[in-house]
């Protein structure tokens, strides 16, 4: 793989047109970022759970604020990578004109990396999958192919993001978001179909990155950018190198910022947070600055900022140092796992404590259980109603509740199921709960 081909500004749906406006102050990749910022799927992230229940009296992060912070860290990673490369090769811009745009490509990809995640965090993904593995959705197994069944039984938000960005939904632009090929490839962490994913010991096939319906779309992107096929399975591809920086930005943010939220919610004490973050703050002596701050929240903010800075510098340096392996597709770990062993060990401590005290905190578990029940119940109602040939009056009314953009003209079971999943996975937490209550008769819409 080579940077000149990997950083293509060719735009999805406009492959044979020059859409560059010489008077536009924005680059093609900055336009990607702006399209995402102003989009409905991105705005809906403000009402989707990140880890903790959506804010009450105390602010915690949701999917939207998380995505904005990941985009900020991603831009810094990209700019630092470019700066380090420029120092080594002053003629870099002549060889690779778009390399200076890496920060913009990564920030756009970071904005979109969670677009496909359903309501209620990972519990929402699990609920969708379990409907087909343990619920009444098991009966559809004989109506779909083996490849299609695999992605139904392993719902993956990353694959759903690619679908949202490229699929032609009814009444919407047939070209989807018309993002650049480079940005689209940078969000696909696991460039394979579900049937080829979930491979132990393989970092780029740990999960999967596109649904059966988007297989041709991803192959088109891979061919344009010169992505290598996986030597162990020609149906799979090796990652676009920028995926590693998008992944690192996400890893940095959720590992560090979940601690900050836990402190706000009094799940972790200040001393616990300081013990975890201070070793990540580099050689700078922060004690005097920390002691000079009046409240623990400000001290946590300082520790968070310094820790993130350390991790950004470390990941960018790893990316530059291992660039040959990244371009050849032989780098088989996350950038965070290749940092200084002392930092890696400290991050493992954070991960272990987060699992024990944050991700299993009562409020987190409660929202996961409630979300699981809500999402599963919605599928139990909408999937059978949409697939039935002879619909009852109740079925017809349920189908009428599905917005026109999600309907499909195709008659096969997979396309119809996917249409319902598009609808349900796009719901916010609040909308899903409200709809659940209405169709179960728990709440009645106002007649005023």
Text of the CATH class of the largest domain: Mainly Alpha
Query: Regarding quaternary structure, how should these chains be classified?
Result: single chain
**Number of discrete helical segments:** 21
Question: Count the strands?
Answer: 2
GO molecular function, one term: dGTPase activity
Protein name: dGTPase
Keywords: Hydrolase
InterPro entries: dGTP_triP_hydro_central_sf, dGTP_triphosphohydrolase_C, dGTPase, dGTPase-like, HD/PDEase_dom, HD_domain, PHydrolase_assoc_dom
The gist of it:
By secondary structure, the protein is mainly α.
Keywords:
PHydrolase_assoc_dom, 448 residues, two-stranded antiparallel ribbon, Hypothetical protein af1432, 21 helices, mainly alpha, hydrolase
Report on this model:
It is a single chain. By secondary structure, the protein is mainly α. It has helices at 3-6, 28-37, 40-43, 63-88, 92-95, 102-112, 121-133, 146-153, 157-166, 181-186, 215-225, 242-264, 270-277, 287-291, 296-321, 323-328, 341-358, 362-387, 393-400, 413-425, 429-439, and strands at residues 229-230, 233-237. It is 56% helix and 2% strand. It has 21 helices and two strands. Strand 1 (229-230) and strand 2 (233-237) form a beta hairpin. It folds into three domains: 3-240, Hypothetical protein af1432 (Orthogonal Bundle), CATH 1.10.3210.10; 243-360, Orthogonal Bundle (putative deoxyguanosinetriphosphate triphosphohydrolase fold), CATH 1.10.3410.10; 363-438, no CATH class. Keywords: Hydrolase. Pfam families: HD, HD_assoc. One of its GO terms (biological process) is dGTP catabolic process.
């Amino acid at each position: 793989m080579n940077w000149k081909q990997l950083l293509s500004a060719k735009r999805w749906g406009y492959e044979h047109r020059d859409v560059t406006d010489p008077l536009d102050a924005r680059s093609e990749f900055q336009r990607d970022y702006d399209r995402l910022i102003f989009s409905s799927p991105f705005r809906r992230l403000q009402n989707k759970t990140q880890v903790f229940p959506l804010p009450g009296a105390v602010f915690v992060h949701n999917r939207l604020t998380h995505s904005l912070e990941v985009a900020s860290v991603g831009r810094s990673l990209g700019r630092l990578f470019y700066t380090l490369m420029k120092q080594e090769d002053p003629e870099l811009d002549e060889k690779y004109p778009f390399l200076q745009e890496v920060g913009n490509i990564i920030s756009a990809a970071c904005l979109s990396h969670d677009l496909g995640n359903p309501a209620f965090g990972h519990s929402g993904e699990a609920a969708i999958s379990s409907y087909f593995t343990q619920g009444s959705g098991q009966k559809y197994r004989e109506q779909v192919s083996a490849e299609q069944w695999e992605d139904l039984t392993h719902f993956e938000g990353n694959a759903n993001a690619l679908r949202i960005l490229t699929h032609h939904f009814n009444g919407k632009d047939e070209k989807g978001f018309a993002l650049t090929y480079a940005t689209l490839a940078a969000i696909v962490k696991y460039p394979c179909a579900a049937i080829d994913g979930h491979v132990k010991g393989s970092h780029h096939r740990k999960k999967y990155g596109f649904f059966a319906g988007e297989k041709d779309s991803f192959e088109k992107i891979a061919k344009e950018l010169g992505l290598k096929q996986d030597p162990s399975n020609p149906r799979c591809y090796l990652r676009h190198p920028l995926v590693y920086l998008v992944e690192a930005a996400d890893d940095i943010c959720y590992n560090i910022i979940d601690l900050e939220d836990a402190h706000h919610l009094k799940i972790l004490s200040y001393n616990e947070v300081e013990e975890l973050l201070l070793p990540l703050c580099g050689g700078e002596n922060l004690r005097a600055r920390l002691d000079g701050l009046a409240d623990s929240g400000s001290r946590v903010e300082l520790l968070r900022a310094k820790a993130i800075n350390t991790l950004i510098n470390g990941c960018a340096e790893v990316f530059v140092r291992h660039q040959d392996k990244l371009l050849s597709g032989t780098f088989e770990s996350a950038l965070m796992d290749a940092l200084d062993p002392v930092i890696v060990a400290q991050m493992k401590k954070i991960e272990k404590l987060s699992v024990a005290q944050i991700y299993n905190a009562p409020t987190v578990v409660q929202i996961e259980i409630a979300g699981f029940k809500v999402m599963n119940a919605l599928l139990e109602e909408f999937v059978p109603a949409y697939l039935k040939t002879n619909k009852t009056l109740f079925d017809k009314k349920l189908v009428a509740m599905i917005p026109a953009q999600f309907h499909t003209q195709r008659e096969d079971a997979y396309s119809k199921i996917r249409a319902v999943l598009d609808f349900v996975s796009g719901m916010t937490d609040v909308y899903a709960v409200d709809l659940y209550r209405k169709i179960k008769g728990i709440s009645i819409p106002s007649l005023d």
